[in-house]
Design goal:
About 75% of the residues lie in helices and about 0% in strands. The chain has about 60 residues and is mostly helical. It has one domain (about 5-65): YjbJ (Protein Yjbj, Chain: A, Orthogonal Bundle), CATH 1.10.1470.10.
């Protein structure tokens, strides 16, 4: 998904991320707004998951949108 589509769907993406990762706060998500790699790093750090697991979850979310 290209950056323009991510920016345009950010609210929807945030909701999906909160459903997938209940421990995330709005601040956690907003810090990484629009930057996929920063978001992956933030999720990986906060949740203790592997980068590949986080990337797979984000890819599933983006595929639905």
């Amino acid at each position: 998904m290209d950056q323009d589509r991510i920016d345009g769907k950010w609210t929807e993406i945030k909701g999906q991320l909160r459903e997938s990762y209940g421990d995330l706060t709005d601040d956690d998500i907003e810090e990484a707004k629009g930057d996929r790699e920063q978001l992956i790093g933030k999720l990986q750090q906060k949740l203790g998951e592997t980068k590949d697991d986080v990337r797979d979850t984000i890819d599933r979310i983006l595929a639905k949108i």
